[in-house]
Amino acid sequence: MADPVAARKARDLIRARDKSALSTCSKGHEGWPYGSLVLVGCDHDASPIFLISDLAEHAINIAGDARVSLLFDGTTRRSADPLDGPRLTILGRARKSDAPHLRARYLARHPASARFAGFDDFRIYRLEVERAYLVEGFGRVRWFEPAALLFDGPDNAELAEAEPGILAHMNADHADAIALYAKHLLGRGGEGWQMTGIDPEGLDLRRHGRLARLGFETPLARAGDARSVLADLARQARVAARR
36 partner at 20 to 30 Å CA-CA among 18, 19, 122, 207? Predict the structure, then answer.
């Protein structure tokens, strides 16, 4: 039976990480597993996305066999035993995508990639999830089918359409609120935080290559709810600032 709490933890891992270990089937070495590191983002349902060149070894492998896996590592060096931390392995098929919102989400998360994302050989790939395996610590493991793992919200498409406008408005007109989110809700210091994404389950911030994820207590039911949720978070942050 699907566990919605564990599924949320798994999606939070995907949404919070900016890189992943990608394993492909080597075309030139008889299908041997080929591991590489890729920068990642995700669609609004948490399906992973990544940008790679047709000339890269892993892209050549995918052209021959679309089956891949991605490892999302949530362990930390601060723990006495790093293997106590969570990690998620996703199995699926990597498919090229021309969806504008995926490219926009990826480049907002990884702005340095804009230097080469427009080259003719670079493509956005979206992972069609087939199964996922979550390890939360010793003996705490579970498999997920796509329907249990991914966020199937009725408003995913509407929020994807509204997202660029929300980000532009928040970054231009409400930098003070974003700073409050970072400092008082997430405990992150420094100035210059930018909002890089908003999805039904939370928002993403970035500052000089550092990422931060602020989850919503209740997922957005529709894109129109984003305004009130963001305003409420700012109020919570102001209250926390006065303590």
Answer: 207
Residue 170 scores a pLDDT above 90: yes
Q: What token pair was written down for 161?
A: 């359409």
Residues 62-100 have pLDDT tens digits of 999 999 999 999 887 666 777 778 999 999 999 999 999
93: left (phi over 0), alpha (psi -120 to 50) or beta: beta
Q: Where are the domains of the chain?
A: 4-149, 156-242
Euclidean distance between CA atoms 54 and 27, whole angstroms: 14
> Comparing 137-141, 187-191, 236-240, which segment has the lowest mean pLDDT?
137-141
Identify whether the C-beta of residue 179 lies closer than 8 Å to the C-beta of residue 206: no
Q: What is the pLDDT of residues 199-222, one digit of tens each?
A: 999 999 999 989 999 999 999 988
Q: If one looks up domain 4-149 in CATH, what number appears?
A: 2.30.110.10
Q: Is 6 exposed, middle or buried (0-12, 13-18, 19+ CB in 10 A)?
A: middle
Output the CA torsion sign for 49, 178, 191, 242: negative
